[in-house]
Amino acid sequence: MQLKQVLSNGKKGGLNVGAVLILPEGFELAPTDRISPELKEKIGNLSFQSYHPNKKNIIVIGPVPGQKYREIVFPILSPDPSTKKDIHFLKYPIYVGGNRGRGQIYPDGSKSNNTVYNATSAVDASEGRQSVDIIPPGPELLVSEGESIKLDQPLTSNPNVGGFGQGDAEIVLQDPLRIQGLLFFFHICYFCTSIFSSEKETVLKKFNCMK
């Protein structure tokens, strides 16, 4: 069963996802003209952006429909050590974070309708005073009219079905000449092995003929 999240209008809708990728200094989002057709097909219609003009190594994506994008491929452009002296052919750490669902708090600190609402005060009705807590559409009410309410008591359920996860891995910036040399070495080994096997078969045939 597909999870549904509470939308801003209080109705249920598809779950959104987003991600952030933190790369080593010098790595950045690949420009469109540097992305191969095969990679473009994997990326689809996703739109990536840098976290900040001065932080091009931090790439963010989302929110996007979670049902459609179960896997996200980041187009990355690596730096060239021949032009950047502070970059070397080494193993570098990378960090990734992913989230699903809407946020529970807006940037200004106010609550969204995707979180639990608690009583901000406790008032005895017999005193003739009242306290008002405004609850937006979305969360399900847990209290009823005439019920005695305590301070910080949950007034609603928590409709949030989202979450956040993070991980780290390593990326190796490899010298292409080293890769070419390794492939050449493997080719020579294969060639020598083929010749050795052929000569071995020839010797065995000659030995059988002598018998």
TrEMBL record:
Instruction: Give GO terms: molecular function aspect only.
Output: electron transfer activity; heme binding; iron ion binding
The record's SUPFAM superfamilies line, in alphabetical order, gives:
Cytochrome f, large domain, Rudiment single hybrid motif
Any GO BP: photosynthesis
One Pfam annotation reads Apocytochr_F_C
Supply the alphabetized keyword list. Membrane, Photosynthesis, Signal, Thylakoid, Transmembrane, Transmembrane helix
Residue ranges constituting the Cytochrome f large domain according to the UniProt record: 2-101
Mind naming one GO cellular-component term on file for this protein? Answer: chloroplast thylakoid membrane
> What is the annotated localization of this protein?
Plastid, Chloroplast thylakoid membrane
Membrane topology summary: Single-pass membrane protein
On assembly, the entry states:
The 4 large subunits of the cytochrome b6-f complex are cytochrome b6, subunit IV (17 kDa polypeptide, PetD), cytochrome f and the Rieske protein, while the 4 small subunits are PetG, PetL, PetM and PetN. The complex functions as a dimer.
What the protein does? Answer: Component of the cytochrome b6-f complex, which mediates electron transfer between photosystem II (PSII) and photosystem I (PSI), cyclic electron flow around PSI, and state transitions.
This protein's name: Cytochrome f
**Organism source for this protein?**
Rhynchospora pubera
Q: What is the lineage of its organism?
A: Eukaryota, Viridiplantae, Streptophyta, Embryophyta, Tracheophyta
